[in-house]
């Protein structure tokens, strides 16, 4: 009998996403498994215990500690380190793990000999992410950014201006969907009024890496979208001095929502120096936010220049019903593999695309290919 734990997301303030009863109805087909849900699971989405019991007779509700102590643990967002200590040594763990930017998580994986699958490292044969909601991430972030710009920019709805220039840094899946999102939002705001809309400008590393050009480019950009995936997380894409070149009314859209980590040398920093990471309950960050005084050492990170920032560590979760349904669809591709196969038997040589992707998400694969 394999036991599978489902703790609730508690460390991302305002993120209420649990897996819906439909996923447990889907998993009920697999023999020799039991599902241990943390008490209260799904209640923030309006579901009751009976909804989950009806979905599968294999569901049990237990304490938070017990939900972490099973043979397999599944949770959409990675909890804090103290929660990970509750994972059973040698157990299977399936979550958004972000190996590259979470040294504390890597240490626990190694020390507890966890058999880790990272949702964010599942890629296809061309190494493109396939367990991801690119559009939900980008659209929610850009919508918050555009709504914030309505407040900061008096000429937002005016024919007495040129197009609103939006700098998009990063052209991967998130960046491409940011451009698509800005097109949709621009049409919604300006197509009927006849006002000039939003003009996305894409800045690749061959542009951001040339300050003499980049500094001039950003001076009239009213939206700056950070959708970068940096190879070196200790280096900035935009320094605080460069943020100071943006118009005072400009809004920063922080899609990446990277963290600072000063426990390693060199420290891990956000792509845009001196910005803060928000949450579902605090997605718009103003220049007078008190966290600027406590978030980072002033002698290491400068926050002298500040702009209103749209930032969230769970952008897809800002549209909860849509996100829950999207991740239900994604989970169906992988839960059968995890429930029925031993960790060591999941292979990159499989004839199943999803199994190959899952094999590439293991911690061992990350270490061998980083």
Describe the protein's topology.
Blueprint: E1 2-6, H1 21-27, E2 33-38, H2 49-55, E3 59-62, H3 64-68, E4 72-77, H4 81-84, E5 92-96, H5 103-111, E6 115-118, H6 134-152, E7 164-169, H7 173-190, E8 198-203, H8 205-208, H9 211-217, E9 223-226, H10 240-243, E10 251-254, E11 284-285, E12 308-311, H11 320-331, H12 335-340, H13 353-359, H14 363-369
Parallel strand pairs: 1-2, 1-4, 2-3, 4-5, 5-6, 7-8, 7-9, 9-10, 10-12
Antiparallel strand pairs: 11-12
Helix pairs in contact: 1-2, 6-7
SS-based structural class? alpha/beta
**How confident overall, as mean pLDDT?**
95
According to DSSP, the number of beta strands is 12
Separate helix tally: 14
Radius of gyration: 22 Å
Unreliable stretches: none
How far apart the termini lie comes to 35 Å
The ordered string of helix (H) and strand (E) elements is: EHEHEHEHEHEHEHEHHEHEEEHHHH
Shape estimate: globular
Largest sheet, strands/sense/barrel: 6 strands, parallel
Helix content: 25-40%
- Enumerate the strands of the largest sheet in spatial order, edge to edge or round the barrel: 3-2-1-4-5-6
Strand content: 15-25%
Task: Give an overview of the whole structure.
- It is a single chain.
- The protein has about 375 residues and is of the alpha/beta class.
- Helices cover about 30% and strands about 15% of the residues.
- The chain has 14 helices and 12 strands.
- The strands form 2 sheets. It has a 6-stranded parallel sheet with strand order 3-2-1-4-5-6. It has a 6-stranded mixed sheet with strand order 8-7-9-10-12-11.
- α1 (about 20-25) links the parallel β1 and β2 (about 35-40).
- α1 packs parallel to α2 (about 50-55) and α6 packs across α7.
- The radius of gyration is 22 Å and the shape is globular.
- The mean pLDDT is about 95.
